[in-house]
Amino acid sequence: MFFAKVIGTVWATRKDEGLQNFKLQFIQPLNSAREHVGDPIVAVDTVGAGVGETVLFITAREATIPLPVEMAPVDASIIGIVDRIDVAKNV
Amino acid sequence: MFLGKVVGTVWATRKDEELVGMKFQIVKHVGLDYTTKETFVVAVDTVQAGVGDVVLVCSGSSARQTVMTKNKPVDAVIMAVVDKLDVGD
Question: Rounded to the nearest 5°, which phi and psi values hold at B19?
């Protein structure tokens, strides 16, 4: 699982039937200090996250597990909204 | 998933028999302002996207999770045509 910040929403009418009813969010991956890491990706939102929120997301085939459908072409899902990150210093 | 722009089509007559009937598109990565990058992937098109369309591409084993690509030797699939992006500051 990784951290990311929700930076936008993607609208797509013509899409695979496995993606109907899912919200697609643009997310910018972050490190534990909430600094940007790599390029933004698109993820299915399963928790109702909003733009600006820090979220937890999963990637690869596991990303379809939280979805209420048998088959969906999804390789990234938002599975939690982060309230707080505690990181010990000097460890 | 990542955002891409369809820039071309790949034609291949001799290919795995599981791939017969599929359309292969060349998809360049694009940034949030729709500018294309130099990197690209070849992806199976399941939504009849055309050259110039901005699309979403799913990669890895998740690319086999469509009706058209189930259990096929495919690791990148175009599964949505993007209408609009709302991006915050």
Answer: -95, 0
Per-residue pLDDT reduced to its tens digit, A9-42:
999 988 888 888 899 999 999 987 888 998 999 9
Pairing of strands A76-81, B24-30: unpaired
Flag whether B56 is in a domain: yes
Q: Which residues of A touch B81 (CB under 8 A)?
A: 12-15
- Domains of chain A are 2-81 (2.40.50.220)
User: pTM here?
Assistant: 0.80
Query: Contact A75/B56, CB-based, under 8 Å?
Result: no
Domain carrying residue B72: 2-81
| Max CA pair span of chain A | 50
The minimal CB distance from A73 to the residues B48, B66, B83 is found for B66
